[in-house]
Amino acid sequence: MHTVNVLVIQPIVDEELAQIARLDPRLCIIDARGWFDDEIRQTWPQWTVERYLGRRPCPPSTRAERDRLLAQAEVILGGWPFPLDLRARAPRLQWFHQRPAGASNLLRGDLWGSDVSVTTSRGYGNTRPMAEYVLGCFLHFARGLHRAYRDRQRQHFEHSTYQPIPVEGKTVCVIGAGGIGQAVGRLCAGAGMRVVGTRRHVSPGDALPSGFSRLEGPEHVYTLLGESHFVAVCCQWTPETTGLIGRPAFAAMRPGTVLVNVARGEIIDEEALIAALAAGTLRGVGLDVYIGELMWRSIGSSRCSPTICAHIWTGDRSPT
Question: H/E element holding 183?
Fold first, then answer.
């Protein structure tokens, strides 16, 4: 009976490892959880390491020991970040599965464009918390809560500047109605919002995802933006979506739109975003994504007035 060597380098709980082993007796599970952390710390930016590896324990291993494991591996279960030279060191590798959903995570390594089959956990992630983040951002700006920090710092409550708006009855455009986008749609619909969205492939007769009242192909995105009060960017980062939210998209938006991006930072044109903020097009922006140096410089410079800065609510990610 031919055995398949499955190298597990992503820290997972023991029960998950046992479940993989029970799938098929031909699987030979090689437990190398945490073995590669030291070299990842040396080859990835400091912020990435601190955010995703933290201070988790790292079993001692040598480069020779790790290379010997890679030389045997036919399947690798990994995560992010990961060793950048896996293909070069794993000549028998046929399949790499990444636990996160975003395929663009793999762009830096030598698996990209190689002959190895690569899969991700798209559609099986914990999408509810991300949907709650989106709705939380919507409510944050709809109720004017971004002004509360300013008032607290000044020790003066200027109630007339809040101008809250209800989200019930408002339209939200979900760009990318995949797993995350559909979770956003369900949650927003539960809050009484009208949900429209885009998906790469839409066929006549397709059933609408739960909570959605309209679903269109990407060619209709500007039309949907024009009728929406809130926008959630949830699509994959691909060559087609790079800079998708640029000047034409901002021009199509209603004045006072709230924009939230939980996809990749590269989907939003930062120059266009800064211009839209300066022009007062947007009520608020929630960014739980990579933010480029341009945005960071603008936030801290004269290009971005204090009023505009108050409209930018960033998540916990920083430039890598």
Answer: helix 179-190
- For residue 204, give the 3-state DSSP assignment: coil
Structural domain boundaries enclosing 57 = 4-120
Per-residue pLDDT band for 56 (boundaries 50, 70, 90) equals: confident
Reported pTM = 0.78
Rounded-to-integer distance, Cα 57 and Cα 288, Å: 27
> Residue 163 in 3-state DSSP?
coil
**Which tens digits make up the pLDDT trace of 294-319?**
666 665 554 454 445 445 554 433 33
Residue 319 resides in a domain: no
- Comparing C-alpha atoms, which of 168, 178, 312, 173 is closest to residue 231? 173
Given a contact cutoff of 8 angstroms between Cβ atoms, the answer to whether 280 and 310 are in contact is: no
Do 37 and 141 belong together in one domain?
no
Q: How far apart are CA 282 and CA 264, in angstroms?
A: 19
DSSP annotation string for 106-124: GGGSTTTTSSSEEEE-TTS
**Three-state secondary-structure class, residue 72:** helix
pLDDT of residue 319: 33
- Kindly state whether residue 320 falls inside one of the protein's structural domains: no
CA terminus-to-terminus distance, the chain:
45
